[in-house]
Every structure is written in C-alpha cells, then in structure tokens.
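BUG: 3D viewer hangs when loading the predicted structure for this chain

Environment: internal workstation, default settings.
Expected: structure renders.
Actual: progress bar stalls at 90%.

Input used:
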Amino acid sequence: MKKPLLKVEGLKKHFPIKSGLFGKTSGHVKAVDGVSFYVNEGETLGIVGESGCGKSTTGRMLMRLLEPTEGTVEFDGKELTALSADEMRKTRRDIQMVFQDPYASLNPRHTIGKILGEPLLVHGVKDAKERKEKVQEFLEVVGLSAYHTNRYPHQFSGGQRQRIGIARALMTNPKLIIADEPVSALDVSIQAQVLNLMQDLQEEFKLTYIFIAHDLGVVRHISDRVGVMYLGKMVEVSKSEDLYANPLHPYTQALLSAVPVPDPAFTKEEIVLEGDMPSPASPPPGCTFHTRCPFKMDICSQVVPQLVEMEEGHSVACHLYNETGDIDIKNSRGSLYAKG
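Structure tokens produced before the viewer hung:
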C-alpha cells in the first residue's frame, strides 16, 4: 500500500473559556477531540457532520490557520505541526483552501487580477507579465474570461466568485486542496456546475481533495471515501459507496435516513434523534453520542469507543460491534434501506 499524502493522528483543538475579572480559564470547548484519518494521493475524502461537529476547525488546523492543541499532521513526509511559521508559509504552496463564503474570502478593494496574482507574488513569482499570463490562464481554466481580471468581486455572481476562489487555490499548483463547504452557499443548479468543475480539475491537475460538507448527497457525488464526525470525533470512515449502502454507526444511519430518495418505490424508516447535540464545552462521558443513541448500553456512558476497522476500509467507533465485527443489536444493519 502506498504512503498517504496526508496522515492525521490524534488531532485536538480545545478553545479556552475565560471568565471572571482577570479572565481566568474556567474550562475548554473541545471543538476537535482526537481525530485521526489519512488521505491518499489523487483521492477525495469527504468529511460530514452536523454544524458544530468540528469539521471546519479540522480543515483550518490542517493548514495551521488554527494551531492544534495536540496531535500530528504529516503531509508529504513533513510534520506540519513542527514547522516554523516561515517553513509553513512555504509549505502552503502545496496545500490550498477554498472557503465556504466566496464573497467574504475575496478582498472587495482588489481587482480579481490582483487577488489571483497575490499567491504567485508571495511564493516568489516577481515577473508581473508572468503573473498576469498565469492569472488569465487559470481564469479560463475555471470557466471565466481573461477580461474579468480588472473587475471587482461584487461584480460577479456567487457561482462566479466561487470559481475565482477555486482559481486562486490553483495558482500555486498545489497537491492538496481543502474545500470547506464550497457549494453550500450556492443554488442547487450552480452547485452541480461547481462540483463538476472540481472533478474535472482534479483529473487535469492530479489534485487531492478534502471536501468538508453537511450535505450527504453532495459528498456522495464527489468523494471516494467519507469520514463522519460527531462532537469533535470521527465516528465512522468508509469508502463512499460502502457507507451509503451499509452504514454501521447509529449516527450515520440517522443522517442517511433523513436524505430524500427520488424514487417512489423506495421506502425507508426515518430515525429521529432525540434532543440536541451536547455542548462541546461539556461533552458527555464515554461515547459522546450515547445521549441521543436509540441503541445505547451501559458501557456507552463509561468507555470511549475506539475507531476500529470492521470490514476492509470500513472503520467505526461504536460499542455495538464486538471484536469479530458482528453487531449486537438485531436488524439494525440495512434495515433502513428495505425496498417497499
């Protein structure tokens, strides 16, 4: 098996809670609490979960836009958490990010030409003519025109702005692009165009993606593998088709049961989870999902389940599965997806 392009082990981000007159730390918000995964070169890893599960924080830590509290991030043989600020800035040439809000991520005072040329200037391309030619080239690559270089961000639609964001990410010829909900702010018809563009670019430029989203349909369309996060932890990781055909974790089953299927002959039982996601400032002991899980057992509130491979390429963190990979509850596997 070839070595992963990116390998994350035990990644944590705890934000301090300040209180009192002197701002004393009274606790921590455990936004990300021990996440581990890997991404192979040329593949797309989707990361899904409810709002507040820590998926966007994870993406920002991979680029060290946020400093991890604990854990390791190994990219292309380099340990990113050990790099100095200057070394990390050079490494960002190979890791780029596409943000959720394309308007907020573009400087409204600068033209598109200047916005797209800035990464080249930062990474050593001093020739203005060379920068201009490359900006025009990548605008056309993402479906825009060279004459757009003198326009400002407010003169573009949401879909066009996201294309500009993608072009900016491509300017330094990166190996890995972290896309943080890149289509969630767009109309459905535009979403499809941007997703298809990203897939075409992946093939053309041999890109690797981490695709962060909450829309399971979008993630299924673009991802090779999917990681499901809940309250700062990774609860299930699997190949995309395996996850959708045979979800193991009760949380994943509940998420997929809520996805509408455009087939009147297809019926499934919708699982309605009780209550809200607990606060990451005071997560429940044991399995963080046990307060909402319809299959909870005594051990769930006492012992933190580890992410263990049940089938080839399919890992789950749940006490419902024993060491042989069998499930301890009746009819939960596949019961959501019975034909009517």
